[in-house]
């Protein structure tokens, strides 16, 4: 299969007619629907750590599909709720978790990545850097831990660096499928999430998930994680 | 200490497994490996000098490029040569020196399924079994419709072949994340509506065997099964599987075996 050269990011939000106020639109019925957020960098900008081909498919196909199906599920939920159809409401929960989770997780993921010229891979400084050293011993130790847990995850899911905003503690967690980090603890805030679904790496790394994990750190956007950590743990 | 390598056969006599007899017959298949160097499956590892009971990576009953263009040789080389091989190797490493060593694959699977409270070797054991079953579910020049007893059973339990096909495709398409879709045969417990054939979908490594069913057909919907050839387009992969790959011969044979066990 050949893809045309991927040099520019696609501003899909404006192409589809939605207003880009964070990708949320309020429809005629008062139901909020979602649209694909722009990437703040070109599809090819994370090469060679992550190929442009993967970035384009991941964004335009996978993330878009979660959004499309999330919107559909929300519409069905709205109907079921207005009819007072409790069994239907409950039945829709898995579609909402799958697709809403997919949208939430991928929206975080694009912010977790940055081209090297944009600071990708630059280690965290300030309070997050200190917290990592305190809790894990070193940044390298954190990376090894996340890579080990990410590699060991069976099937599809995510590996996270999060902060427990109640306990002010850093945590490493994994979630299955598209379960957001909050499913592992209501006070957990995701700082860095790494997608270990096969679609995130297969075209480039094939079965060698550990190589993908090793390389993705070169484009991890610690600036974003540090800002978020600073807000939760001032 | 058992010296034979464990196999995936159940208590049913080996002759009942028609799946081993492809167009080439079992005897010729290994010759084709040697002759067609560029197409052949990699030879089995000779293993350690010490003979221990361990599981083998069995090659599919057709050459690596035989399912082209529907399932590329490229995909097969990774799917069988890397993924399936890793499940076998890792399973062997996990069970050596434990009470699971020397047991049949199905036995290991059921024990480590542990009624849903999965023990660590389950994922590897089940994925070895699942992939063996998956290769057998396909054949070059496959697809089309079943016939005979199988078709009758499908029409009885689903209404029509088309309705079955729709249900199977839908299960495969809607299994979220990694997993499998199956056609299974069930007698015990007999479902309240009297149907013997069911479509199931399972996550990750779970399969119908550990749930008490007899598997007849499967499609792998882990992304590694289709990503190189179809990328995100899982529905296209499923369609091609049904139209061009499924081995109804293998499914019929399995149904025959399942029924003979009950009779």
TrEMBL record, chain A:
One of its GO terms (cellular component) is mitochondrial matrix. Its EC number is 1.15.1.1. Residues 124-227 form the Manganese/iron superoxide dismutase C-terminal domain. Residues 33-114 form the Manganese/iron superoxide dismutase N-terminal domain. Keywords: Manganese, Metal-binding, Mitochondrion, Oxidoreductase. InterPro entries: Fe/Mn_Superoxide_Dismutase, Mn/Fe_SOD, Mn/Fe_SOD_BS, Mn/Fe_SOD_C, Mn/Fe_SOD_N, Mn/Fe_SOD_N_sf, SOD_C_sf. Its cofactor is Mn(2+). It comes from the Eukaryota. It catalyses: 2 superoxide + 2 H(+) = H2O2 + O2. It is found in: Mitochondrion matrix. GO terms for molecular function: manganese ion binding; superoxide dismutase activity. Its main location: mitochondrion. It is an enzyme of class 1 (oxidoreductase). Mn(2+) binds at residues 58, 106, 195, 199. Belongs to the iron/manganese superoxide dismutase family. Destroys radicals which are normally produced within the cells and which are toxic to biological systems. PANTHER family: SUPEROXIDE DISMUTASE 2, SUPEROXIDE DISMUTASE [MN], MITOCHONDRIAL. Homotetramer. This is Superoxide dismutase. It comes from Rhodamnia argentea. The lineage of its organism: Eukaryota, Viridiplantae, Streptophyta, Embryophyta, Tracheophyta. The gene is LOC115743748.
Automatic annotation (TrEMBL), chain B:
Residues 54-138 form the Manganese/iron superoxide dismutase N-terminal domain. The keyword ATP-binding does not apply. Residues 146-253 form the Manganese/iron superoxide dismutase C-terminal domain. Its EC number is 1.15.1.1. Residues 15-45 are annotated as: Disordered. Keywords: Metal-binding, Oxidoreductase. Its cofactor is Fe cation. Signal peptide: none annotated. The keyword Transcription does not apply. InterPro entries: Mn/Fe_SOD, Mn/Fe_SOD_BS, Mn/Fe_SOD_C, Mn/Fe_SOD_N, Mn/Fe_SOD_N_sf, SOD_C_sf. Belongs to the iron/manganese superoxide dismutase family. This is superoxide dismutase. It comes from Rhodamnia argentea. The gene is LOC115740751.
């Amino acid at each position: 299969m050949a893809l045309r050269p991927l040099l520019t990011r696609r501003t899909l939000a404006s192409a589809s007619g939605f207003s880009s106020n964070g990708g949320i639109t309020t429809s005629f019925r008062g139901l909020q629907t979602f649209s694909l957020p722009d990437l703040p960098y070109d599809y090819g900008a994370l090469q060679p750590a992550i190929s442009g081909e993967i970035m384009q498919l991941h964004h335009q196909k996978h993330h878009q599909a979660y959004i499309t199906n999330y919107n559909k599920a929300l519409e069905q939920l709205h109907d079921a709720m207005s009819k007072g159809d409790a069994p239907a409401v409950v039945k829709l929960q898995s579609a909402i978790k799958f697709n809403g989770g997919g949208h939430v997780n991928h929206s975080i993921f694009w912010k977790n990545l940055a081209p090297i010229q944009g600071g990708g891979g630059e280690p965290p400084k300030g309070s997050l850097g200190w917290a990592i050293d305190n809790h894990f011993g070193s940044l390298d130790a954190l990376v090894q831990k996340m890579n080990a847990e990410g590699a060991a995850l069976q099937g599809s899911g995510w590996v996270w660096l999060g902060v427990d905003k109640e306990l002010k503690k850093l945590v490493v967690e994994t979630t299955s499928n598209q379960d957001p980090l909050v499913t592992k603890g209501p006070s957990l805030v995701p700082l860095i999430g790494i997608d270990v679904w096969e679609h995130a790496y297969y075209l480039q790394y094939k079965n060698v998930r550990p190589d993908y994990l090793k390389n993705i750190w070169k484009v991890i956007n610690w600036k974003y994680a540090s800002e978020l950590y600073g807000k939760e743990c001032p | 200490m058992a010296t034979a390598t464990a196999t995936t056969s159940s208590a049913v006599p080996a002759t009942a497994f028609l799946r081993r007899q492809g167009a080439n017959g079992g005897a010729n298949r290994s010759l084709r490996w040697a002759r067609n160097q560029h197409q052949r499956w990699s030879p089995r590892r000779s293993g350690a000098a010490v003979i221990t009971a361990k599981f083998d990576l069995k090659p599919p009953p057709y050459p690596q490029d035989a399912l082209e263009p529907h399932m590329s040789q490229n995909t097969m080389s990774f799917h069988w040569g890397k993924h399936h091989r890793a499940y076998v190797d890792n399973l062997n490493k996990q069970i050596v020196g434990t009470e699971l060593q020397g047991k049949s694959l199905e036995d290991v699977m059921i024990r480590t399924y542990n009624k849903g409270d999965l023990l660590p070797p389950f994922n590897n054991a089940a994925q070895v079994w699942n992939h063996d079953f998956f290769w057998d579910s396909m054949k070059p020049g496959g697809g089309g419709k079943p016939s005979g007893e199988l078709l009758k059973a499908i029409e009885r339990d689903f209404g029509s072949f088309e309705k079955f096909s729709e249900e199977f495709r839908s299960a495969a398409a809607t299994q979220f994340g990694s997993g499998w879709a199956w056609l299974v045969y069930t007698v015990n417990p007999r479902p309240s509506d009297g149907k013997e054939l069911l479509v199931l979908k399972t996550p990750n490594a779970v399969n119908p065997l550990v749930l008490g069913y007899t598997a007849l057909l499967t499609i792998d919907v882990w992304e590694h099964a289709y990503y190189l050839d179809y990328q995100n387009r899982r529905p296209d992969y499923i369609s091609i599987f049904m139209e061009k790959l499924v081995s109804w011969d293998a499914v019929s044979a399995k149904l025959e075996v399942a029924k003979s066990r009950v009779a």
